[in-house]
Amino acid sequence: MxxxxxxxxxxxRFGDKPAIIHPSxxxxxxxxxxxxxxxxxxxxxxxxxxxxxxxxxxxLPPSPEYLFWxxxxxxMGGVAVPLNNVLRADEVASLVEDSGSVCLITDSAGLxxxxxxxxxxxxxxxxxxxxxxxxxxxxxxVPFISRAYNCRYDDLCQLxxxxxxxxxxxxxxxxxxxxxxxxxxxxxxxxxxxxxxYLGIYPMAHVGVSWGISALRAGATWVVMDRFSLDEYVRxxxxxxxxxxxxxxxxxxxxxxxxxxxxxxxxxxxxxxxxGGPLHPSIWKEFFSRFGIPVVNAYGLSETIVVxxxxxxxxxxxxxxxxxxxxxxxxxxxxxxxxxxEDPDIECDxxxxxxxxxxxxxxxxxYWGMEEETRAVFRADGWFLTGDIGYLSADGMLxxxxxxxxxxxxxxxxxxxxxxxxVLINHPSVDDVAVFGVPDNHRGEIPYAAVALxxxxxxxxxxLQEYARERLAGYKVPREMVIVDELPRVGGWKLLRRxxxxxxxxx
Length: 507
Prior knowledge:
Blueprint: H1 7-11, E1 18-22, E2 27-30, H2 31-47, E3 55-60, H3 64-75, E4 79-84, H4 89-99, E5 103-106, H5 108-119, E6 126-129, H6 133-141, E7 156-163, E8 169-175, H7 176-189, E9 197-200, H8 210-217, E10 221-224, H9 230-239, E11 244-246, H10 249-255, H11 262-265, E12 271-274, H12 281-291, E13 295-301, E14 306-312, E15 329-330, E16 335-339, E17 354-359, H13 371-377, E18 384-392, E19 398-403, E20 408-410, E21 413-415, H14 417-424, E22 430-440, E23 444-453, H15 461-469, E24 480-483, E25 489-490, E26 494-495, H16 497-504
Parallel strand pairs: 1-10, 3-4, 3-5, 5-6, 9-10, 9-11, 11-12, 12-13, 23-24
Antiparallel strand pairs: 1-2, 7-8, 13-14, 14-15, 16-17, 17-18, 18-19, 20-21, 22-23, 25-26
């Protein structure tokens, strides 16, 4: 079976047509340049001694360069380990170690973040710094290999790190076959055409990058925003005449607060993607009424490459979505069912609430190095237990009602409470702490911290946030804090997060 990057060889027929536009650097890459760049960087990795199956971390700012490394690693048979550049040194080291990455691709800023750990042996991977003259010269001088490494459908090409409710990070094992299925399914969901222009806002380390890769698969043009700004988002939609625009609930909510006439500036958009968190029905309905842009509300996970195996609501489904609550029907080769939360062997009836299970060709092959966790959710018959709670209507539309997990989703970012708590508990003023999500119209949810203080101590929200920012990525830092005498626990040990959410959710 061919390598999942061979669509780049096919699409070289588009020649000098723009494949990627990067407005912030005023750079455009044609389909011909894209293939050449990917082949050259894949050749560099091979010359450096990277062999098929080796894991290679990418720790770069969101930009086309990040994407080139995805493709280059896949092309030479390696396994990409995407890391968000907002992660701090200890977080990077943990994922590099867990994945067994032999190489870490970064830039000068990334090197400054991790160089101490690289120097003391905490990071043992070979560190490649890409924004140097030395790298550029080496990349030009290596023997050029144009042909992609021949892979099998089930060969790994990516470890997409997610996390469980315990905070233990898990690497979803994605294969070349998974990605092929995802690219074609997402192309189908958005009805991508060669003349489409896709405006992307999702971080390159996030599995939402698949929407842009799927646009390239279709021969469309991808406009890459490396940092979201609402004004710039509207400007680029207008000036680039974007036909498909990425979105998420906070973006849609923000657009509703823009001046009259903004809808005219976005008239080129025929569809908007939404995912990464719940889209409140009132916001969705008001947006559609004002802007007239159908929202393709999609449901999927890192373990399914978004809707590679998932569901989505298309404009033609809107007659079934009067209350604007559904995440649609199965797409591509997806199967969906609802099972009892305590016994996944029992399938729920139509309309009955239970755990959502998905099955299809983009479901990951398991979690890297975690056999027990893999067996718990990746069933022998191919079904993947998502941990999300919902039901199927008589029309076959899926609705999500709750989460089985305590994960917080803020503006598409997934925050795992225990991971944050493990950091905050070390603050000298903190005796006990719980992190939980509270609904927010703009961001979907925001993280709250309930803190029990050490006797005689005091602590402000600003102090707690400063402590957290030094040790965690910025999006994981609690946005609000409440001081409590003690945390609600069952039998003195099992934390009742639901009770906290209910107590501090605005009425």
